[in-house]
Amino acid sequence: MARDNIMYLYDSTFDGLMNCIFEAFEQKETPVDISYDTHTLLPYRQILTDTDKAHRVKYSIKAKLGKDIYRIVYLAYLSREKGCELDILEFVRFCFSHKGNASENMNTPIVSKMFCLAKSVSREQHHIMEFLRFNDYNGNLIAVINPEYFVLPLIASHFENRFYNENFLIFDENHFAALVHIEKRTEIIPVDEFIVPEFTEEEKKFQTLWKLFYDTIEIKQRRNYNLRRTHLPKRFWKNVTELKDEYI
Amino acid sequence: MDIYEKLKILTAAAKFDVACTSSGVNRKNNKGGIGSTVSYGICHSFSGDGRCISLLKILMSNDCVYDCKYCINRHSNDIERATFTPREIAELTINFYRRNYIEGLFLSSGVYINPNETVERMIETLKILREEYRFNGYIHVKAIPNAAPEINRALGFYADRMSVNIELPTENSLKLLAPQKTKESILKPMDMIKTGIEENKNEIALYKHAPHFVPAGQSTQMIIGATDESDLQILRLTEGLYKKYRLKRVFFSAYIPVVENKLLPAIDTKPPLLREHRLYQADWLLRYYNFKADELLNENNKYFNEYLDPKSNWAINNLERFPVELKTADYEDILRVPGIGVTSAKRIISARKNGLSFEGLKRMGIVLKRAKYFITIGGKSYPTAVLNEKVILRDLVGQSVINNNSASNQLDFFEAIDRMKENSYGKR
Questions:
Q1: CATH 3.20.20.70 residue ranges in chain B?
Q2: Nearest to A103 among B28, B350, B360 (CB)
Q3: In this predicted model, what pLDDT tens digit does every residue of B223-274 receive, in sequence order?
Q4: CATH class of B3-296
Q5: B42 contact residues in A (CB cutoff 8 A)
Q6: A143: closest chain B residue by CA
Q7: Is the CB of residue B68 less than 8 Å from the CB of residue B178?
Q8: What global pTM score does this model have?
Q9: Which of these, B287, B340, B337, B344, lies nearest to B314 by C-alpha position?
Q10: ipTM, 2 decimals?
């Protein structure tokens, strides 16, 4: 489809992106870019975020294309990768014009690209569910994470359910946001800066016990650091209790 | 003795147990409690040997009255002994769990005082966790051989998974190395768990709130390389265990010499890690690919090829079944192509309505390194790939191995391959 010489500017929310898709379908046009970055020399059109329109787009993706495709769109959006918005538009267009599930069209470049991106985001979600470490501060739990993608919305329900009776805070230092669960209510808030308090004696005790367990459980005759790094990439180590001292 | 020392001793004593999976059951937290389980399981860390850490894997006690020769905790061994109290275990578990270090607890034990007493203390531990802390995370527990069946059974109502280690693959080896254990003492609790799970299914069908018995099923493990069973014997036993006892998993543990004994491999023997790896590959083929043990090995080939994975090895020995035409073949046949797994096979089936190509396969994330020799698309084979035993062996086994094996520089390439085949671990 021909590119029309205009850029869409939206508010960076998922609903905002849904409105961009609505606009592109309604105007039968393809913008040169979809972005929330106002530093641009291109002529742009501000797309307003209308919840009702967003809902209509979401509903029709789910109803006509299926939940799997909706999930791919959502995960790809959470990647926050530059240019992902335009790819999402192309992907949604492709899916509307070629019925069938995503895997039937996996050999089409845009489908396979979106599939891979969604997979990376979901892999990052699982990494964080695995490697996130809480520290206890007099009964409140705090974790700092450094994920590549914005996965807080994806991990929220898992931790909310698992630690329902606890108060906890998960700070994403790469995306400057925090998942906060206080008195059984959960929300995601923007956070510019977060200073981690000093560990208590009780906390140090359990960190030492855990590190002791971690070092002892290794079978030295089978040592294989490469295999460990494959499963637990080094970029996570600085926030992983048992490995933070080895992170340089 | 303080908690640090106990943890160190009882972790070291448990580390040779392989299973650390937290999979097989989905359970949400209930509002008053802590914890949940997810059916795919979660690994929380990886130790220096690259193995997953999902559960707090400890022994309750290493103060064992038995004297199994291969075991580091055997009664006659001069090592430090320690025993956790039930409360100590529960508190460690909860504190590690709250910090997202673990998915739950894997509790095993040496036989402390006697089998029944051991199990009673384990039950007390799980009771504190499940009833006092209202812990909904994962619990894997070992049934203790020779404990009364009803006591082992009671343990199963607090656990997600239960296992009995088969330890050694034949009765002869057991007699030799684990004199206090018999085939019967191992198979009896296994049978009890299997029957328990089946009865429990009916109870749950009748009463929605009937207590769950071992919802994530049972598993077992055996030691590889301490005794001289062949891969074929081990694989047949594995197949039998899946069929007869409906096990979820059979784990293999490469024997690492920890004690000096003339009945055992020398203390400086390297653990047979590659052999263990081949057995796991074959185990996957049994569970997900509909292979039978006798297809992979037979009386003439009792050991896996050290240089080639079992699936490729099978394919090379059954070349008449290839190439597989991806446009028309059944799922079952596509699944038998080396390099194509369950996900890839399903993707091929659903994508072929819209046309297949080798480029398309790559975009679908299908790796052609092994598969390319064994497939055609619309009658065309992959450029440069030839369905020929010698060519495939040369490409897949690689030059480095051949160099290592050619002692004399005049050795012919294919002779080298034949020699390699003979040099599998079988001929020790």
A1: 3-296
A2: B350
A3: 999 888 999 999 999 999 999 999 999 999 999 887 778 888 888 888 898 9
A4: alpha beta
A5: 126, 129-130
A6: B99
A7: yes
A8: 0.89
A9: B337
A10: 0.93
